Amino acid sequence: MHRLISLILLLSMIIVILPACEKEPQLITEKTAKETITEIYPEAIILECLFVEEERSYIVDFKTFHGTYEGIVNASSGKLLSVMLKEPETDEPMFAPEDEESASEEVFISLDTALTLALRDSGASGTAVLVKNSLDRENKTYNIIFRSGNTEYNYLIDAVTGDILSSDVVIDS
Q1: What separation in angstroms does the CA of 79 have from each of 28, 45, 82?
Q2: Do residue 152 and residue 108 come from a single domain?
Q3: Which of 65, 109, 125, 167 has the fewest CB neighbours in a 10 Å radius?
């Protein structure tokens, strides 16, 4: 009986001690957070990168040809959680200039431009989280899906002209 009690005490100590010994998940570095942004936005210039301990995330301010953005990168997973357009660069159309040489070959607008056009058109305020983006080269369109609050926006954008071909808004109940 004494051995049984000793064994039970030993097991309960192990159960209490083991969780305390577990290591916290390794966090990504500031460099990795910046690389997450530049992988998605290759033309981005990183302005500032701050680690927020309470949120376990990095806030990365960056600039592209189209404006200044704030991205939030999860410090545990390294995934981009959201991107918010802080300041548009200009209200003029954001298309590649046409000259005689490039007129013969079609130039697609960038994903960044397509996203900016969709964000501006939606009028979404606050933080927008990119859910999906894809370029259909055959149909020359971008499909952009993002969320802001309890609303999901789905845009089909002409990849050559930047025209919004369709948009759909779904509000979660």
Answers
A1: 10, 19, 9
A2: yes
A3: 125
Full-prediction pTM beyond 0.70? no
Beta bridge mates, 135: 142
Position 15 pLDDT exceeds 70: no
Write down the pLDDT at residue 18.
53
Residue 170 falls inside a structural domain: yes
In a domain, 5, yes or no: no
CATH number of the domain to which 128 belongs: 3.10.450.40
The amino acid present at 65, given as its one-letter code, is F
The CATH number of the domain where 52 resides is what?
3.10.450
Written as one letter, the residue type at 40 is I
What are the pLDDT digits (tens) for 56-79? Answer: 999 999 887 777 888 899 999 998
Residue 96 confidence (pLDDT): 47
Q: How many domains does the chain have?
A: 2
Give me the domain span that covers residue 157.
101-173
| Cβ-based burial of 39 (10 A; exposed 0-12, middle 13-18, buried ≥19) | exposed
Torsion sign over Cα 82, 155, 108, 96: negative
Distance of CA 20 to the CA centre of its chain: 34
